[in-house]
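Teaching assistant's notes for section 4

Start the section by putting this record on the projector. Ask students to predict, before seeing the second block, whether DUF4386 domain-containing protein will look compact or extended. Collect guesses on the board.
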Amino acid sequence: MTTTSPARVRVAPGLYVTFVLFIVGMVLRTVFSLWHPSLAMLDYENLSPIREQWWAMHIFVGAPGALLAFASFPVLAYALCRARGSVVAAVGGAVTVTGIIFFGQGIAAEGVTYGYVLNTAALSGEQGEKLLTYITDHAELSQIGIFGGLAVTSLGVLVLLAALWLARAVPRWLLVLPVIGLVGGLALPFAPFSLELGLFDIVTQDVPLVLIAVLALRTAKHATD
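Reveal the predicted structure now:
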């Protein structure tokens, strides 16, 4: 009895905190994805009325949601791998965290930039519209972080799924479904930021990752009992 109690104290609380942070992050990501206007609405006329909302959603929802979710998930995946697949999981975790940092920076930068451009106290409507058009046509300063970070994060998650496959830690369909969702999101004719794409991502990517996180928590609990 005395040999198992310290392990329970050391492992379970940290993993519970990680799990809670992961769930909060996933909820914030889902809210941001379903809220985000479609590409057809990303012009001055449509964005100007939601300037403050745009800034707040990027700073307090989109960026922190992504960082919380994908900085926490590698810890949960690693906890499931144990000895088999743990090295692969560590590599996947490092890649995932690196990518999501760049992604979060890009999201936050976009929110702050648009917040200033759309502010009529700083720029008149005509000036703001002209600058917004220029930013849209030359968006590489933020898009490198957003899409580059997203690509690196996706690669890291794929490595984590491979580690879980090697460890035989979860049902295989939970590992295959996110890959199908990632490929399907690129191949199927979904409009970016559409409700259809958002729901597709929730079913094929978010739900499997949440179930994997639940299994990590359950496995750790049983290991310390």
